[in-house]
Amino acid sequence: MTEEQVVHEETIYEGRVVNLYVETIDLGGQMFEREIIRHSGAVAMVPIDEQGQVYLVEQYRSGARKRLLELPAGGLEPGEEREVCARRELQEEIGQYPETITELGSFYVAASYTTEYITIYLAEGLRPSVREGDIDEEITVRSMPFDEALQLALTNQIADSKTLIGLVWAARHLGRLGQS
User: Fold this and answer.
1) Which residues in the chain land under pLDDT 50?
2) C-alpha–C-alpha distance, residues 77 and 96, integer Å
3) Which domain holds residue 102?
4) pTM value?
5) Residue 48: inside a domain, yes or no?
């Protein structure tokens, strides 16, 4: 199998969240173009309190053109470690600091056109701790029993991919799959 070789790269757009490039690749002597969105990476958290409530956020998402129910999440700052980002984002989005976080797994959002790689954490031992959030986000925090949120994911009532993946991975970790 022939590996793709990047022979040229052109910057199309550099933004605050993503950068867009067109790469010319050589695939066995044939030239093709690939459009690539570069992203610094992100984290998402499944925050569960002592009573078994999971905290989700509801916010407007421009790509979906509607408000979505999601796990708290956020992008990495330059040089920021993923666990540090997870703790910061929880404070900004739901006003809680996790005493413990457990990595559940990581995945590419859409490897055919973006470098965005998300790591999912289970966040437990929550205590109040607020940090000022992003000025351009209007977030509503919602909490519900974990099994209820999992049921929303399993019945296609949650449309956000990181939330679907995170709730299922958390259920697997907690031994809750098949119990909802």
Assistant:
1) 180
2) 20
3) 40-174
4) 0.91
5) yes
